[in-house]
Amino acid sequence: MIMNRNTIFSGSVKALSALAVTASLCACSDWTKPEALDLGIQIEEPTEEQLSQIRDFKQTDHKLVILGMDATSETPVGRYQHLTAMPDSADYIFVRNLVGGLHSDLVPEIAQVRQQKGTRVLADIDYLTIEEAWLDLQDAAIEAGEEPGTDEEYAAFLTERVNTQLATCAEYGCDGVMISYNGSASSSVAVAGRTAFINAVMAWRASNADVEMVLRGNLQQVIRNTSGGETLYDVAAFLAQFRLIVFAVGEYTTENDVNLAVNRLRRSFTDFPVDRFIFEATVPDPADPVQIGLTPQQTASYVLTPNEDFAKLGLCVENAQDDYFNVANTFGNIRAAITVLNTPAEDTTVDDTTNE
After folding, report:
1. Fewer CB within 10 Å, N side or C side of the chain?
2. pTM to 2 decimals?
3. What is the per-residue pLDDT for 26?
4. What backbone torsions phi and psi does residue 294 show, to the nearest 5 degrees?
């Protein structure tokens, strides 16, 4: 097992001798402490040898880890705002609201985590923030006694905002984009918005064919590509753009619930690519510390349970930065989940102690 400063990952890294592994284990207590520089604690940085082991591990066949965090354009006040503070085992970090700006102290960290840890950074392209901005405009128009916008105007508004978000990938030197569609019911405005969102992504993709793309969100809505008998977009062509597809466990509390939901998706669209699923959990919000749905540790156990109908490639934690505030154990939920992911199959039964 190789352990790093912020989290724990394990795997069979054949190049490591038993002595090297032992040395890594001995350093574990130092590596797993948070870099809480905002609290005045000085933590020793990992050595180049340790960083090399982290990078080498990420080149092996292993369960992937994706972590989500918020961007800030303000001067960072805590380690939770730094990409470098995210657990080292993250294969991907997706950063929300880059369109709002990223502080100059944080921009270099995108390249830093890539070069030092082999962690790829994705710019989050978020439908909901655009929808919410549009609804605010409509409320203001109604209050002013004006006519609300049409579906066509919403589509144009959304296309412009999607393109602005997509531009942040190149602006900040990200490795790719996370396409987050979390639209809901299929009202006419929802259909117009979803269609414009997907078509804008596809238009951008035509001139950015080499950029890595990951999809997450309400997949049942993504596949609803018809309205009034008209085909609005090519679902198969859209889904084919993504190396990974993130399926949110949401409020599901059992593995069987998740299996049933995935199978509903498969039945709804028989050509759905089932070879690339990542399963997304959340950690409690510090302001409302109640776990919603399966914990990351439970979701990690689910990821390890074989299923002949679809692949389980890894774990996503949507609000990873909130786990920094786990007072008893910084990033404790995430580190416990990664321990499960990298435990041999015969040893995967563990107690859920993520909130101790």
Report:
1. C
2. 0.85
3. 35
4. -60, 140
pLDDT given at position 326 = 81
pLDDT tens readout for residues 271-281 = 999 999 999 99
Q: Which two tokens stand for residue 93?
A: 């970090």
pLDDT at residue 44, rounded to an integer = 59
Answer left, alpha or beta for residue 347, where phi above 0 means left and psi between -120 and 50 means alpha: alpha
- For residue 14, pLDDT over 60 is answered with no
Residue where a domain stops, chosen among 60, 90, 109: 60
Statement: residue 230 has pLDDT above 50: yes
Which residues constitute the domain of residue 98? Answer: 61-347
Across-strand partners of 30?
Answer: none
User: Which residues are registered as beta bridge partners of 216?
Assistant: 180, 246
Which helix (H) or strand (E) segment holds residue 217: the answer is strand 212-217
Helices marked H in the chain — which ranges?
18-26, 28-31, 48-57, 108-117, 127-143, 151-171, 188-206, 219-222, 235-239, 255-268, 296-304, 332-341
Residue 309 lies in a domain: yes
Band (pLDDT 50/70/90 cuts) for residue 291 is: very high
* Same structural domain, 72 and 11: no
Q: Which pLDDT belongs to residue 243?
A: 96
With respect to residue 352, please indicate whether it lies within any of the assigned structural domains.
no
258-283: buried (b, 16+ CB within 10 Å) or exposed (e) per residue?
Answer: bbebbeebeeebeebeeebbbbbbbb
CB distance 9 to 21 below 8 Å: no
- The single residue listed with the structure tokens 């309205």 is 227
State whether 91 and 38 are in the same domain.
Answer: no
Q: In whole angstroms, what is the distance from residue 338 CA to residue 231 CA?
A: 42
Residue pair 280/303 in contact (Cβ under 8 Å)? The answer is no
- Look up residue 289 and give its two tokens: 């510390």
Task: Give residue-wise pLDDT tens across range 114-132.
Answer: 999 999 999 999 999 999 9
Residue 64 bridge partners (DSSP): 314
- Give the 3-state secondary structure percentages of the chain, helix then strand then coil, rounded to 5: 45, 15, 40
Given a contact cutoff of 8 angstroms between Cβ atoms, the answer to whether 4 and 50 are in contact is: yes
Q: Are residues 76 and 51 in the same domain?
A: no
Domain endpoint, select from 44, 60, 76: 60
